[in-house]
Structures are given as C-alpha cells and as structure tokens.
Specification:
single chain; about 100 residues; mainly alpha; Non-ribosomal Peptide Synthetase Peptidyl Carrier Protein, Chain A; PKS_PP-bd
C-alpha cells in the first residue's frame, strides 16, 4: 500500500502527530474496506473513495469513525474536500500537528 509521507520511515511518527507514517492510511483503508466489503489491500490510497461505492451515509459514518479514533472533530464534508485516503490522511496529520 502506498500513501506514506515521503522522507519518513514507516513506523516513525509523522512530525508532530505521534502516529506512525502509514498507520492513518492503513486504518482508513480498513474502514473504507469494511464499508464497501473489500479487503483493505484492494483500496488504493490515491483513488477517490467514491469510486468504491462510498455514499453519503458511509462518508458520514467514516467522519464519525475518524472523530472517535483520532479525537478530532471533522466536518461532514471531509470526504468531498479530501476525496482520497492519501488526502484525508494528510489532512488529519496536519490537524494533529497543528
């Protein structure tokens, strides 16, 4: 699976987040995979998750999962503004860092 931050080794916390690089992407792929009934290995972090059949109900549920897992309050428009796992993860890392 791709999507890790360049220049930081997997397992090393992303600067300012306390979460290892790649961990957020893997967690998101697992969540999306559960919603669309596909193994997480089949979820491309650079592809729009809408292409996997994620509808508005699943997107809102994913936002709730993110809030519970990472302790962040996210807007319900998160998935529309950041349509890929890679983009969502980058947004979450930036929020945690800052």
């Amino acid at each position: 699976m791709t999507g890790a931050v360049t220049g930081t080794a997997a397992g090393t916390p992303a600067p300012g987040t306390g979460h290892p690089v790649g961990t957020i992407e893997r967690w998101l792929a697992e969540r999306v995979g559960e919603y669309v009934l596909r193994p997480p290995e089949e979820i491309d972090p650079t592809a729009a998750i809408a292409g996997y059949g994620m509808d508005s109900v699943y997107n809102l549920s994913l936002c709730g999962d993110i809030e519970s897992e990472f302790g962040l309050e996210v807007d319900p428009t998160l998935v529309w503004e950041h349509p890929t796992i890679e983009a969502i993860a980058a947004h979450l890392r930036a929020r945690m860092a800052g």
